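Now for our specimen.

. . .
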Amino acid sequence: MQILYFLAILIGPLVKVLYNLIGNYAATMIVATLILKLLLFPLAIHQQKSTAKMSVFQPLMNEIQQKYKNNPEKQQEEMMKLQQEHGFNPMAGCLPMLLTMLVLFGFLGVVYYPVHYIFGVSDAAVRQACETLGLATANATTMQTSLIQAIHNGAVIDPSIISADVVNEIKNFNTVFFGMDMCDIPGFNLTPIAIFPIIAAVTMILSYIFTQKLSGMGSQMQGSMKVMMWVMNLMFVSFCFNAPVGFSLYYGVSNLFQIGQSFVTYKIYSPEKFKAQYEAELAAKRAEKKKKKTMTIEENGQTVTKEVTGGEANKLRLELARKREAELYKDERTTPLQK
């Protein structure tokens, strides 16, 4: 699973730079969250536009699926034709969701392995230091936060394992927020620190409801997709209870930002507005396709002018191309093979 934390390589140094300016781990996580959410904001707008566009083309896609349900190849061909003709991609809205999830895992990696990603200490050195202090366990995540807390309590680390400068940085690393240590893991216990994962869970539910309603995504998602979205959100809520509380702080702030973002994008880029725009574009293309055009073709050696629609014109062009091809290769098919 640690491979999912690869964005922590970028988020960790960002947290360290911000911490050097702010001086508090919790406040740093809040600021880092806001910065990354602002960077992802254009993708959120793109996703809302894609959702509005899909609301127009989804009925057409459903119609194709029903019409060719017994012919998968023809169904795929018609789907591709629809996408190419109208220039839309059903998967366009997935990229923002994927990036948001990867950023979530990136922050999870930072709070699970702060000594590694924020201070640049190798996992092997962390384990060695924990072994000398009697903190080594099979759980690599708890070792990292336990090591920070041990150094805060005056533990001495051999400079050959972790340099004295880094140990001093960790010693001065302020992880306290309202009297609570952001390196603690709340678990499913009714303790004061449990307020953070509880807030994260409540804001997740509110964020999901508002986002689905205001972005128009709720009406587009099938039952299985909705279940998957809930499962994913509940998975991250479970991380809030089982990860250092710094992740709960990030997730809660991220959800609050998402709620505000949903209202802003709805005001500026309402799904209804874009749906009406795409419907008008689709109607214009269909009208243009049905519009009669004058086309000159050759039939039985005579030039004939016909009034045809765009669709009929395309069929005639295809027929003419096939006839030319047949004429071109006629001699090759009829000439006997030379001995």
Observations:
- The mean pLDDT is 82.
